[in-house]
């Protein structure tokens, strides 16, 4: 779907708002229903994964459903020579995502009758948590960009959602892996909140993880032209009928 930048930014705003509302709201609900921290985390991870999958499926055709400045930056970096997002689009997306994330946290608090505009008092400090954020973000970038390199973008709603649900459990930080959501979650003093003072090092760790993820993409899949060439050869080899025209078309595309 071809949409204007304004519409795409609006979709990113609404999508990120909905995502953070799902994350924060499910955390609040879980805490109210059970005192078991393990059950609370399980509920939060499952609901987050379900909600993320729905949002990517619904909004992907309009804006790409980045919902995350890291994904937007990775999209720009990998597509900067091949018609990817322009720097101005990256900036507009990031602003829309961050504003949406703040709105999502405030909306979740309002839905559950909690105090709004109260910053989180939950510190998330320590090198082990920063390492967890770097790992979570690196894995996300590797997955999102890697799916494009192997021609499996259609699986993104399921696989990205599954990865985030898993990363909430296997990383020490709980896998924020999203600078916009990290800022937004500073505005809720609830289960999924993060103290404002903990936000800058988390975002820095996410930036390091994003770079690491892009390096891994290059190491595992090669550069863009190399990956495109491999996809062309796979397509040609898989089709026994009329290989010569297929090869010519693929070479023109590259």
Q: What keyword list fits this structure?
A:
transmembrane helix, Glycerol uptake facilitator (Major Intrinsic Protein Family), disordered C terminus, 254 residues, globular, 2 domains, membrane, water channel activity, Glycerol uptake facilitator protein, mainly alpha
Task: Describe the structure in your own words.
- Pfam families: MIP.
- Belongs to the MIP/aquaporin (TC 1.A.8) family.
- It comes from Streptacidiphilus jiangxiensis.
- The protein has 254 residues and is mostly helical.
- The chain folds into 2 domains: 5-222, Glycerol uptake facilitator protein (Up-down Bundle), CATH 1.20.1080.10; 223-254.
- Helices cover 73% and strands 0% of the residues.
- The chain is built from 10 helices and no strands.
- 45% of the residues are buried.
